[in-house]
């Protein structure tokens, strides 16, 4: 099975959540597009401690920290949806997206189209801030209208009980994890939250 980690925006915590998912499922990890340095693959490698996970190279690794379509244009390159082929593996794969669902790859396609093209189930990451209810429910609406399967939602960062309640109510998504704001992130912390995630994953 392949799971596509997307979020309600940039800097929502996709890489941290991807590390937790990768550790929890002992899955392989793949970031199809890296725009900017340092790379997320290297960060997840630092945090994952199980001996099973394999890390697959990016399809596009771009220098400019920008939207993929802009970063590619800066290097006189173009990104096409059919560039993306799932890595060959017998393992589950955690696929980490870039930014939110409607970040453009080119003039026609968006990041979420990679999930559709590769038949991935989505894990949606939502961080909580003023305006995040709107951003989350707009993302949920897009996923539902486009019949994109969603495994569940993960709330990341400082909690907000009322925001979480209303998002749960209107999304109908299963909450896979409520990850508090972490002051320290290392392999032991990732393993702890991976174990917590698994309590809900199959429930």
Secondary structure blueprint with pairings:
Layout: E1 2-7, H1 14-25, E2 28-30, E3 33-35, H2 40-47, E4 55-56, E5 60-62, H3 68-74, E6 93-100, H4 112-117, E7 121-127, H5 132-145, E8 150-156, H6 161-171, E9 175-179, H7 187-201
Parallel strand pairs: 1-6, 1-7, 2-4, 2-6, 3-5, 7-8, 8-9
Helix pairs in contact: 1-2, 1-7, 5-6
Cofactor: Mg(2+)
Protein name: ATP-dependent dethiobiotin synthetase BioD
GO cellular component, one term: cytosol
Summary keywords:
globular, 203 residues, alpha/beta, 22% strand, 7-stranded parallel beta sheet, 9 strands, Rossmann fold
CATH superfamily: P-loop containing nucleotide triphosphate hydrolases
- Number of DSSP-assigned strands: 9
Number of helices: 7
- The percent range for helix content is 25-40%
The first-level CATH class name: Alpha Beta
Strand content: 15-25%
Distance between the termini: 17 Å
Instruction: Report the average pLDDT across residues.
Output: 96
Order of helices and strands: EHEEHEEHEHEHEHEH
In this structure, how is the largest beta sheet organized? 7 strands, parallel
Secondary structural class: alpha/beta
According to CATH, the fold-level topology is: Rossmann fold
Count of individual domains: 1
Physical arrangement of strands within the biggest beta sheet: 4-2-6-1-7-8-9
Main location: cytoplasm
Keywords: ATP-binding, Biotin biosynthesis, Cytoplasm, Ligase, Magnesium, Metal-binding, Nucleotide-binding
Subcellular location: Cytoplasm
GO molecular function: ATP binding; dethiobiotin synthase activity; magnesium ion binding
